[in-house]
Write a structure and sequence with these properties.
- By secondary structure, this protein is α+β, with helices and mostly antiparallel strands.
- The chain is about 40% helix and about 25% strand.
- The protein is built from 4 helices and 4 strands; from the N terminus they run βαββαβαα.
- The protein has a 4-stranded antiparallel sheet.
- The longest helix has 14 residues.
- The two termini are about 15 Å apart.
């Protein structure tokens, strides 16, 4: 399944660790606090557990969305939806 992870995490150290965990899980950074990629259900659950251990649940915000290819292709992406410097060919292959 296609996974989006979006977050707003106050503490720099936790935010950096979440980004590192997303990369290690095989997700690709599309904006500074936004990752996209494909994971199976177990990998997605593991990622969620790891992130939960890092964040401050009273202050931080993390969204993990599951999506299939048809849903992804039906998304509206406006303006400069992605940071061109961060988007890899793997992300482009998911979107187009």
């Amino acid at each position: 399944m296609i996974i989006w992870v979006l977050y707003d995490i106050e503490e720099d150290r936790a935010r950096t660790k979440v980004a590192k965990i997303c990369k290690q899980a095989g997700l690709y950074r599309v904006q500074y606090s936004c990752f996209l990629g494909t994971l199976n259900a177990n990998e997605r659950d593991s990622l969620q557990l790891e992130i939960e251990e890092l964040i401050n649940e009273e202050k931080d915000k993390v969204y993990i969305f599951n999506m299939n290819k048809d849903q992804l292709k039906s998304c509206a992406m406006l303006g400069q939806a992605f940071d061109e410097k961060l988007v890899s060919d793997e992300v482009k292959a998911l979107l187009f």
